[in-house]
Amino acid sequence: MEIMQVMGRLVCTQRVDGLGHMHLRILRNNAGKQLVAVDPVGAREGNWVFTASGSAARFACPDPNTQTDLTIGGIIDYWLPDG
Amino acid sequence: MEIMQVMGRLVCTQRVDGLGHMHLRILRNNAGKQLVAVDPVGAREGNWVFTASGSAARFACPDPNTQTDLTIGGIIDYWLPDG
Amino acid sequence: MEIMQVMGRLVCTQRVDGLGHMHLRILRNNAGKQLVAVDPVGAREGNWVFTASGSAARFACPDPNTQTDLTIGGIIDYWLPDG
Amino acid sequence: MEIMQVMGRLVCTQRVDGLGHMHLRILRNNAGKQLVAVDPVGAREGNWVFTASGSAARFACPDPNTQTDLTIGGIIDYWLPDG
Amino acid sequence: MEIMQVMGRLVCTQRVDGLGHMHLRILRNNAGKQLVAVDPVGAREGNWVFTASGSAARFACPDPNTQTDLTIGGIIDYWLPDG
């Protein structure tokens, strides 16, 4: 899973049925690339999140047939070195 | 999901049955690379779209057994920062 | 799906059963990297083809359990800008 | 599967249900990129591990529906050239 | 599928059950990166092999639930240009 930051939301009136009513978020990865993800956790602009890709992206949605390959899995509070 | 721009359409008379009659589109990603996607939403040249890859690409098609690893998921109207 | 050119064929007497009798082709992508794909469409050296990766690569084969992650999906005739 | 080193653990109070109570680890790959993985083997900071991605990441968890695309598969003791 | 060279074997006493007793091999791809694969074909150090990734990696194993995302699919004898 990758660490990304939320940049905003995407408005697409014409889209495939398989996305249902899921909100689409613009994320930026550590290489500066902008990606689109569905957001079942309610992240906000500026939040650091981790994302799941591939078939795991579907399992994170209420409907696992959702046509997504990138889903926000959680909002990062902080991280700690062990010990 | 990635953001790409539609460049044109691809003509392939000799192709696998698993693509059915789906139209094939040439897309260009943000690195300038040309990719091929199926298009269930009716995008046109110049449109900015977002795409789904992997198994999600199949779920976006009328027949989820369609042999595609890249499908146009929607046409982008605009995007907004939060708040 | 990606655009690649056919370079030749690969000979492997010792290989997993899951590939059956499928022919193996050497392809070159636009970064000059050589990849191996199965070929259900009968492409020839020099042909420009598009390929499907991931689970879609299996659906393009007569037996969807074929152990491949890259399959030639069609031979490109030409491509056209819209309008 | 890739070789990575464990850097610490990630704390996320707000996350999708599909991750259950799995611990989240920060890993660093050989390009210096930080990634997030679930850890069913009990790796510690500084350990060198190998990871599985894609659907294989799910099969390594007690619940194969776990929403992960990266899972630690084992802790590396050492590696040997053949013969 | 990618072309890689076998470098040695990996010893991991602590690993997930999903790998069973499969041998783990260290491979090097054409960018010099070291990867870990399971080996159902009996490749030896120095052999050039091709590998399958993703879900195809599992289908190449005796147990398709094996937790691998990279499996050696065959040992390369040689390759030929067409015609």
TrEMBL record, chains A, B, C, D, E:
Keywords: Bacterial microcompartment, Carboxysome. SUPFAM superfamilies: EutN/CcmL-like. GO terms for cellular component: carboxysome. The keyword Protein transport does not apply. The keyword S-adenosyl-L-methionine does not apply. It is found in: Carboxysome. Its main location: other. InterPro entries: CsoS4B (IPR014077), EutN_CcmL (IPR004992), EutN_CcmL_sf (IPR036677). PANTHER family: BACTERIAL MICROCOMPARTMENT SHELL VERTEX PROTEIN EUTN, ETHANOLAMINE UTILIZATION PROTEIN EUTN. This is Putative carboxysome peptide B.
